[in-house]
């Protein structure tokens, strides 16, 4: 018993010593950049009641820890310069950090296009070799989740050099380089990003709780049984994955023509799963569609286009497998042998979805059968049957999108209080199908982050690039809706948007041209925050539209610069107009008195106009004289 007591006392003593260790968050470290011309906040932990002294250059402050061992000091603002040494002392310990610079600090956040590394950008070899800027520093936050707010994160500051820059955020680096080349002072950027993430995971629980949709998720996160729930989830997830492998459709041969579909339900194709039964589920869903072709098209090879499918598919025509593809962002284009087609035909698709949205989701004009250059559209109400649904399993895949706030808690909250200039943000692809929610979520995130820093700092973001196949006819678009939502968020003060509708890639959601992305973000900072008033930071932005006869006259903000049609003939393209029926048609357009006149001879009394409205409006060519593209828009004459 005495031995046990002695061991317990020793253990408690050791633990108390560990708890009493002087510490600061990981971003207070060698090579860091601290924000100039603002109070320099430094904080950490030590033993309760202990005296702490902090020195940076000639600045020195002392304080005592509170009863929980927490301490903080605020050093007076300093001008750009360095290097300095930061010393943090307690009675028994000293933490010393060297090569500290004072300059401009920006937080870079979002999903994969912000995470995207310099080594993968255009001209990566040359860019990395030329990245010799010792006064540019990057802190890559190690990806981590937290169901409660954390006080520290993992990562380290790297001095920009050819040896280190390849792992930098490409957007962050090109943004920082533009600032450095103009300001000639140290620039630090903190890259806190995670690919494939929803905006909700970057929002605090206190803000998310104002959205009723997340009430159940937040209650579960705040439960004392949350950790046990995650373990249970992992177990049930494995059961779900096994159910996908054993799904009944293939065993029962649902792909055969004689399969009864009397009790199958209907869903519009193409579109992501969105009805009450399918919305939000993962699993296996079978789709089928019957169609006919003329006799004179028989006996010929055909081509079946299904656009993109999220995630994987196996496709049959009249019971014959014609193709299978793994990957949510790949086009499905399958050859059908001549002997397979008949006058009456049945397409059957098994779709397996593992996370996020599911279904056939490409443009309408990519869903067709082609026989001897004749196109048979297949956009319609298809029948479907759920084979396996995640809704049948009480599990959550514990990734960054499993619950709201997971990344805010772990990758943003620890930074709160650190002096910084502003934020650049590149996110939205994951929320593209939910623009109606993003319109409230995005400004709520910005407002909340600002309130936590107690500073209405600049917040600049990247509008979604053009992506996927261009539409042959004007059509509805999730991506266009999301871009419109991003533009509407400019109503918040001290915000700006880098429009990149001209540099996306049809087949890659990650455009490699990150140079222009970083530069266009930097234009906003230089113009708005650093006194470069002569720099033009934005392209034409829709202001108003009015009808003149059977044409529409569009006026733009930010039109100190001359409007330009980037076309060797001087023609504008990318415009569509609609009458009272709301059916958009391509329109002619011209620049006149620095406004745009839009018309279509087939439409009398037009009431609305769209520009660059689509997933990939590849022909949009309205710019200003500074070379910046106009932002996509939709306008109505009642506005």
From TrEMBL:
InterPro entries: Galactose-bd-like_sf, Ig-like_fold, SASA, SGNH_hydro_sf, SIAE. Residues 1-20 form the signal peptide. One of its GO terms (molecular function) is sialate O-acetylesterase activity. GO terms for biological process: carbohydrate metabolic process. Residues 104-225, 420-522 form the Sialate O-acetylesterase domain. PANTHER family: SIALATE O-ACETYLESTERASE (PTHR22901). This is Sialate O-acetylesterase.
